[in-house]
Amino acid sequence: MSPHKIALIPGDGIGVPVTQAAWRVITEAAAREGAQLDGTWFDWSCETYLKTGRMMPEDGIDQLRKFDAVLLGAVGWPAQVPDAVSLHGLLLPIRKNFTQYANIRPHRLLPGVTGPLRAEGFDILCIRENTEGEYSGAGGRVHEGTDNEVAVETSVFTRAGVERILRFGFEQARKRRGKLASVTKSNAQKYSMVFWDELTDRIAAEYPDVEVSRYHVDAMAARFVMAPETLDVVVASNLFGDILTDLGAAIQGGLGFAASANINPDRTAPSMFEPVHGSAPDIAHLGIANPIATIWSAAMMLEHLGEKATADRVMAAVEAATAAGIGAKPGANTTDEITSAICEQLG
Ligand SMILES: NC(=O)c1ccc[n+]([C@@H]2O[C@H](COP(=O)([O-])OP(=O)(O)OC[C@H]3O[C@@H](n4cnc5c(N)ncnc54)[C@H](O)[C@@H]3O)[C@@H](O)[C@H]2O)c1
């Protein structure tokens, strides 16, 4: 089999060391499993923007399209480049152009990691709609600066958009514990969210083997804290998913553990894998960034590429390291110590 072609975009701040760490771990794991990875590094970042006036070259999307997957560290250096520029110049065009409509985030407490709650049985896969809904960008402002000023921001829910994210959720539930929770607020939002509920019922009929529940987003937030063991796959709109996944990240011990994937389920373009965290300018030069979120994201990438054995080997090594206390507590180990400990556990 030909090697999997991976585009590596470390980006800014701690994005650089955590991407290097993830690449080291997954290439060592791949060598043990006989999987072949071919990485190409791209220095697209805020530094590139300051030098060239662009976060990525004009043909950046075309360049990336040739790859099987993208692994990204983090983008943003707000002291020198406004966040809107870095986000709209790199991350968002990739997600949009490659139709990465499913944003998936696993929330699970790794062995040895103590979150802020006693969340036993906390193992949830959150799936967030990534292209429309409340973040459609449809809206405008009139009478700006006057007492009559009005701002309107319209959520856009399309049948195609909602059906495809729900179907993706049902497929994931089939691969896990067979339960899907659909999140809306249909008591208050009587058009879009009732529509979402109706489509949930309709798609559920195609998956009789999956147990379906419906929750309002406020009740779901409470359930994350009070009864997480009742949840398996959670599917939510762009805004609701955004908020719930931050809650999930907090419960699992913080941003150092929060992995994510932007998936194009139809595989018409590469999917992108990245930690949830940003470039963390406050600790960028201290060498203490936790690389686990990025290593976990890279493991999700391997699984997406069909290298499940290598992905499992990576996650087993991460869990062995945290169980031994390495990387389990914020700031207690350096990035290099955590990476080396994980590599030693690869077997
Ligand atoms: N997907 C992305 O690339 C992405 C996501 C979020 C923020 N950002 C950008 O990153 C920059 C900084 O944003 P922010 O400070 O709001 O969020 P951040 O995620 O970079 O940092 C928030 C806090 O969490 C800590 N933290 C984050 N990741 C950590 C890790 N792996 N190990 C240890 N501690 C970690 C940081 O030190 C900081 O105190 C901004 O420019 C922002 O736009 C980018």
Automatic annotation (TrEMBL):
<comment type="function">
    <text>Has multiple catalytic activities. Apart from catalyzing the oxidation of (+)-tartrate to oxaloglycolate, also converts meso-tartrate to D-glycerate and catalyzes the oxidative decarboxylation of D-malate to pyruvate.</text>
</comment>
<comment type="pathway">
    <text>Carbohydrate acid metabolism; tartrate degradation; D-glycerate from L-tartrate: step 1/1.</text>
</comment>
<keyword id="KW-0560">Oxidoreductase</keyword>
<dbReference type="GO" id="GO:0000287">
    <property type="term" value="F:magnesium ion binding"/>
</dbReference>
<protein>
    <recommendedName>
        <fullName>D-malate dehydrogenase [decarboxylating]</fullName>
        <ecNumber>1.1.1.83</ecNumber>
        <ecNumber>1.1.1.93</ecNumber>
        <ecNumber>4.1.1.73</ecNumber>
    </recommendedName>
</protein>
<dbReference type="GO" id="GO:0051287">
    <property type="term" value="F:NAD binding"/>
</dbReference>
<keyword id="KW-0479">Metal-binding</keyword>
<keyword id="KW-0520">NAD</keyword>
<dbReference type="InterPro" id="IPR050501">
    <property type="entry name" value="ICDH/IPMDH"/>
</dbReference>
<comment type="similarity">
    <text>Belongs to the isocitrate and isopropylmalate dehydrogenases family.</text>
</comment>
<dbReference type="InterPro" id="IPR024084">
    <property type="entry name" value="IsoPropMal-DH-like_dom"/>
</dbReference>
<dbReference type="InterPro" id="IPR011829">
    <property type="entry name" value="TTC_DH"/>
</dbReference>
<dbReference type="GO" id="GO:0050319">
    <property type="term" value="F:tartrate decarboxylase activity"/>
</dbReference>
<dbReference type="GO" id="GO:0046553">
    <property type="term" value="F:D-malate dehydrogenase (decarboxylating) (NAD+) activity"/>
</dbReference>
<comment type="pathway">
    <text>Carbohydrate acid metabolism; tartrate degradation; 2-hydroxy-3-oxosuccinate from L-tartrate: step 1/1.</text>
</comment>
<keyword id="KW-0464">Manganese</keyword>
<dbReference type="Pfam" id="PF00180">
    <property type="entry name" value="Iso_dh"/>
</dbReference>
<dbReference type="GO" id="GO:0009027">
    <property type="term" value="F:tartrate dehydrogenase activity"/>
</dbReference>
<dbReference type="InterPro" id="IPR019818">
    <property type="entry name" value="IsoCit/isopropylmalate_DH_CS"/>
</dbReference>
<feature type="domain" description="Isopropylmalate dehydrogenase-like">
    <location>
        <begin position="5"/>
        <end position="342"/>
    </location>
</feature>
